[in-house]
Amino acid sequence: MDGFVNVLKPSGPTASDIVVRLKGIYKQKKIGHLGTLDPGAAGVLPVALGKGTKLFDFLTFKVKKYRAFFTFGKTTDTLDSYGKVTEKAPFSVDDNKIREATRQFIGKIKQVPPAYSALSINGRRAYDLARKGVELNIPSREVEVFAFDLVRQVSCDTWCFDITCGGGTYIRSLATDLAKALNTVGYMSCLIRLSSGEFDISDAKTIEEISLDPLGCLLDLQYPLKKLERLDVPKNMYKQLQNGVKISDFRDFDDTMSKIDYQKIYCDGEFFGVGKFVDGKLEIKYRLNG
Of 151, 163, 143, 149, nearest to 65 (Cα)? Predict the structure, then answer.
């Protein structure tokens, strides 16, 4: 059974808990989620089955969109509402100050991942080390934020934002960094993932819905690839593709195709997978046939 399931994750279970549930529903061993979502967070959690897992590296760092709630004036050790309050500070902010402060986080920025995260440090999860009181020195890394929009003020100390960002961005770190820019402290009090690549919350299914109609909720292998250009390789190159040979003879091809990044590769009507041109040769990077 190959494809994807667009899960509407509730707050509470971990992303791994959801995968375990789906293993039982689909009776499938080869299965995994495409980018973790914290236990307290809800929303879109794409899960790959069978050959879909071959696209893990391709899909994990796609653009994601979140509805996030930031609370100012105090922070916690986990940087979310599930942690212990570690610091309080006065704050005086309004919508205009917040909008002005968010501008400095648009584009490519440096951020330090939270200590309580699934980040791997010397083969161990950061949150396991943090829970044991190990002091972590996590280096900053570059992430990209495409949009950081203030939606509304929710209460006297909490504001709601819509954030569009690249994969690997920690919204909890964004909350604390924004608070710092506003001369206070803060944490992420709630998070909903609205989309992850082509997977949108409008089409997401709950575990209960999936259990009632597993096949009806299974999306095909090409679902997350809908925006990729299609490249049809001549039939006489079928064996070369099948044997994993990089193809260099493209006299019959439109030259513009070689300038496109990743493409869906077909030959004789068969979908082979996702490939790209490397040094003038077509190479299938993610083989999905056979």
Answer: 163
